[in-house]
Design brief:
Layout: H1 2-14, E1 19-26, E2 30-36, H2 43-52, E3 61-65, H3 76-81, E4 86-95, E5 98-108, E6 112-117, E7 120-125, E8 129-134
Parallel strand pairs: 2-3
Antiparallel strand pairs: 1-2, 4-5, 4-8, 5-6, 6-7
Length: 138
């Protein structure tokens, strides 16, 4: 998450309306950014963001894209924004017998998210979440 904080600080100056949903290093060689913008994500915006982060290209293959239908959920505000939608939450360690939970987002506080899964409502503290995203098609 440190690289994401660094990237957000850099973009705040040149592209203040860009929200970095997720910044992840993949296989040690690629830096993948999922971004969002109130007016949508265009190719031109992805190119501007890529230029702002040009020095990262010395260390990584830089990939900048829109989040797509299976957009990542990484902050409490993301979970609150999509209450009523289906999401998949993968856990760092098992919780209540689950390694992952898929269901409707029914609650999101600053500490945890509640998901209505097939076997009932599961409350997951954010620190237990490894990765989460919306389920496409809902």
């Amino acid at each position: 998450m440190a690289i994401q904080t660094e990237i957000e600080a850099r973009l705040e100056q040149s592209e203040p309306d860009v929200e970095v949903l997720l910044a992840e290093v993949v296989s040690g060689t690629a830096l993948r950014l999922y971004i969002d913008h109130p007016d949508g994500v265009t190719l031109a915006l992805c190119e501007r963001v890529s230029k702002c982060l040009g020095d990262y290209r010395d260390r990584y293959t830089l990939e900048v894209s829109s989040p797509g239908e299976d957009r990542p959920l990484t902050r409490p505000v993301h979970f609150r924004r999509y209450l009523g939608r289906r999401a998949r939450v993968r856990l760092r360690d098992g919780l209540e017998g689950h390694r992952s939970v898929t269901g409707e987002l029914v609650g999101a506080s600053d500490r945890d998210v509640a998901i209505a899964a097939d076997d009932g409502v599961v409350t997951v503290p954010y620190e237990h979440i490894y990765r989460s995203n919306l389920v496409p098609g809902d």
